[in-house]
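ARCHIVE RECORD
Type: protein–small molecule complex
Small molecule: pyridoxal-5'-phosphate
Source of inputs: curated submission
Record status: active
Notes field left blank by submitter.
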Amino acid sequence: MSATGTSEDPVGDGTRAVRAGLPEPVKHEPTLPGPVFAAHFHLPGEVSGPYSYGRDDNPTWTLLENAIGELEAPGRADVETLVFASGMAAISAVLFSQVRAGDAVVLPSDGYQALPLVRAQLEAYGVEVRTAPTGRDAQLEVLEGARLLWIESPSNPGLDVCDIRRLAVAAHAQGTLVAVDNTLATPLGQRPLALGADFAVASGTKQLTGHGDVLLGYVAGRDAEVMAAVRRWRKIVGAIPGPMESWLAHRSIATLQLRVDRQNATALAVAEALRQRPEVSGLRYPGLPGDPAHTVASRQMRRYGCVVSFTLSTRARAERFLAALRLVEDATSFGGVRSTAERRARWGGDAVPEGFIRMSVGAEDPEDLVADILRALDESAD
Ligand SMILES: *Cc1c(COP(=O)(O)O)cnc(C)c1O
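STRUCTURE (tokenized, with ligand):
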């Protein structure tokens, strides 16, 4: 958990987060300029950049893209970042701009619940989709000849981890592109581009913005030609974020290090408390020593996320537990300052037991939260 600067990294994460993407100060102007609401920009004469039409570019996006780029790849001018209307818009932009009929793609079999829909769409377009579970680098067995490897580490909701550097080396040796869904880790937890990936892709809806009030996504990539195709996809599909959402996201990034450090430390405390409880099985948190993912996670992650998952004996027990919680809302999504939890099997689609709970740890006082969880476990006992 490095907080302060090192030689490769001249400033700490908190310093970087509060200043990320800010323009040079202008006298009598706010530090972070307000959202620019514009469908079109004044454009006399010849068509010229940077701003002409609001589906192509917007000054509020530019500042946010700079901010995310600084966090995903500090000090790297070769990395380009593009923001999207949602995480799914960003994911689809990478996949559908890069693959063609006849290509093969490797997706996680235990990844985000919308990936099976993406799979069906890719297959409808004549793309061969192979899947492999995230843990133990099982992707290596199905990589041969693939155009693109899609990694989700840690995976949602199972919190498995794979060795990104190892997979990227194997993929690049045969010309396969590598994209990493960095939603769960956030750029303060993991830097996929430094680990060798071609793309860091994420939903900004979760911990990046952290208040449960914005949908957003982004793609950061290091190859200009490849990123030009992603940009073209954004233009033709039009899955663009609103200026207000973009501005809210940028404002929220200023507190990213505070939120992530607090929430992740409390997530570890919650996991440690749950580990003592006999009615809890299948407990997963990559930051917990002894977790199956911990060894690999500690090599490639700088922080371990705010999500803890575990299983209670039955659906009824899990429902009683969720209803008994007072400080944790029964809600989907994760990463917000208010803790949430849900019985994941209620959605269908994830291969999880009926009593499986995904808990997102917020910014409440850790003692209050742990006490609430232990009380709810007691009250929901069979
Ligand atoms: C939520 C999520 C997404 C999708 O993001 P949206 O902003 O909801 O479109 C993608 N990947 C992961 C890992 C997620 O948790």
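CURATOR ANNOTATION: The CA atoms of residues 334 and 360 lie 5 Å apart.
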